[in-house]
Amino acid sequence: MSNTEHNPRPRAKAPAGERVADWADGRLGIYGAAKKNLRKVFPDHWSFLLGEIALYSFVIILLTGVYLTLFFKPSMAEVHYHGSYVPMQGVVMSEAYASTLDISFDVRGGLLMRQIHHWAALIFLVSMFVHMLRVFFTGAFRKPRELNWLFGFLLLVLGMFTGFTGYSLPDDLLSGTGLRFVQGAVLSVPVIGTYLAMFLYGGEFPGTDIIPRLFAVHVLLLPGLMLGLVVAHLILVFYHKHTQYPGPGRTNKNVVGFPLMPVYMAKAGGFFFLVFGVIAAISAVFQINPVWVIGPYRPDQVSTNAQPDWYMGFSEGLIRIMPGWEWVIPTGHTINFGVFVPLMVFPLVLAVMALYPFFESWVTKDKREHHLLDRPRNAPTRTGIGAAWISWYFVMLVGGGNDLWAIFFDMSINAITWFARIGFFAVPILTFLITRRICLGLQRRDRDKVLHGRETGIIKRLPHGEFVEVHEPLPQDQLHLLTQHDQPKPAELPPPTDGHGVRRKVGPVEKLRVRINRGYYGPKAQIPKPTVREYEEITSGHGHH
Amino acid sequence: MSSETGPHETVSDENLPAEQGAEPGTAAEKANGNPFADPGLPPHDDRIQDIDERAAKRSERTVALLFVVSMLATIGFIASYVIIPVEQYVYLFPLGHISALNFALGMTLGVALFCIGAGAVHWSRTLMSGHEMVQDRYPIGAEEDTKSAALAAFGDGARDSQLGRRKLIRNTMFGALALVPLSGVVLLRDLGPLPEEKLRHTMWERGLRLINENTMEPLRPEDIVVGSLSFAMPEGLEPEGHDFHTEIAKAALMLVRLEPEDIKDPQELDWSYEGIVAYSKICTHVGCPVSLYEQQTHHVLCPCHQSTFDLADGARVIFGPAGHPLPQLRIGVDDEGYLMALGDFAEPVGPSFWERG
After folding, report:
1. DSSP state, residue A377
2. Whether B110 and A298 lie within 8 Å, measured CB to CB
3. Nearest-CA distance from A374 to chain B in Å?
4. How does pLDDT run across B164-192, given as a tens digit for each residue?
């Protein structure tokens, strides 16, 4: 400590800060942790901020959510409204709806807190979603981070359900319609559906139990689980050390960046305030979920353009595009495929993403740790699968908003529904093929740039009249960046007979694996990166262009 | 950061960064003859603040200014909270009429928070060290000796417990642990009643009049004109009543008058009265109220998922995800000429379920 020099007394007494730290160290052992972590290095990249936005919006949701619980009454008891919102005077509504009006019109700042809570929820979900895609396309989910991928995936799913239960609480006409849908969906479950619906709603729909029950789930159960998962997610990020993009000086064995203290404390801590500030400003200006316009819930009323929040939109699409197949089986029971199939495909769409890392590691049999991120073009099959999944998601989103598309673009709702029905199968396949093709094109471009240099745009006329463009050789850091990636050899089936001429048995699963592996690494899936010899052959010959 | 760049003549020569030159690794790698080799970290580019104390001072003032603005905004937040009445609305272009308090609180809070963030980020980017650091990574998995020590410890513990040897203890313990969660499952039983016949019946019964939902008056046949859609509920159902929501969720009715010759379905004609047909308003898909009527085609559309039913043909599904027609209510008129039900729906209303049959 430098200020001890100015301390007139000898070193008998340490400065106050050190004494506090000593006290804490004697009980918590903080010096060991501080020594390891205070100057821990984190790499810098804008795409790493996506996860931070998710984290900070989660914190904002917790803060504003606690405030809202102080005023919200999760009760379906019917009351006559007598608050300050004139159009609803004397209207019969549930206490949940009435207290939401009170928060919006009578509690000073209540509307702001509600709007921040809801906006932050939308931003939480969208940032998790985009963060997941970033992790996917850069291959950051590979060993040793598969479990953290699953933690993040669970956070996304729990976030969706927390959002849904949250916007169901005000008991307005729109959210009540969502709860009606849930009841219909639960009823479609074969054998036990009616029992599940009765137990979930405490009897017939809507009853008076569902809002208080959802409240407990929304403010206690789900946030508790999410908080635990967020902590686990962050611990693993710390423990694994953050991945980094390839570049000069960045290897799989190091991490290059700035220290936690002070740079990341200031940057990441400051970013929390930036995110919070922007969400507060959005909430000051843009109205969200004006339940007073929508009105209280009545099961026999509905409004047009009924839409869930965006993150539930794809499941809405599933339910809208499924044909109404309903069979009465010989036992006299009904199977409602029209609702039950979408209910089952909904988790499947998400599970495809959750399980992908395990699928890829099974296909590649790659046991190495990966800390250096892939450039998406260098993993064309993975990038194609990711793009296909996104296109699949968007087809469902279009299907979920078929009424809005029909109105705003003056199109036939039946045509849009049919587009989504066919597109559900066709669009992902097309997207996969096109994306993979684009990736290979980009790989070819990288190869050309390495071998022939950068196009300068300068046209030179040769003495015999030919025009050529002058290419400029790349600097070494660029050459390194464009050639640093691995190009694994495709898997091969072992020869049909072993050394003694005995027929070898290869199981169908292994045959399938080899086939898929060739789809990842075969000659049609990667453009060979230039070798040093190719480079030297071309660059040593003068007069080439 | 570009705003921090001062005039270049103020920067004296000796403060300029050293000529960017040979990184130690670069020459060696080049000598190795691998043009693709990693050239190592590029040399550090000094920022203007690293070499010009005046620029650094300007950064300091910028950061401090942002923090001061934040303080002022917080004071503005408190002042807005105290001064602006909660019910005051103002016109603000281009937002329209907005709550003055919400706007003032949100903007001041937003500015107060944003400026803290902007100040901290600017501080870190201009004044804190701009030198990238390199740290090593170590494999996540344990070394072989750690692994064998861990396995040995586990083996000792397992032997100590005698779990493998004393099968009786092991099996009964598994049995006890497997059974005990059942108590928790049993406790869930009272979450709700059993379904029984609840989904099969509604409030409708023979003799109940059809009450107009808007006027709350009983309907007469002449109240229903061709081309209009009316909504009705059973007589005796009070909107203030205890079970109103649960009952209306099943009993809600829609009425249209068709020309009797337009009705294609013989049972529909039989259950109608002078061309007036009464159908359940609850969609058979997932239970939204069907409410969009097209009078030319006699189609009704559910606004939630666009299931479309043909009211002139037994409410057959002609598009969308619904699996079966809307149930029809048999109606007639009573002695006083009011429309009444001639019984309950013949089949369950709303979404289908396993036992529906």
Report:
1. G
2. no
3. 16
4. 899 999 999 999 999 999 999 999 999 99
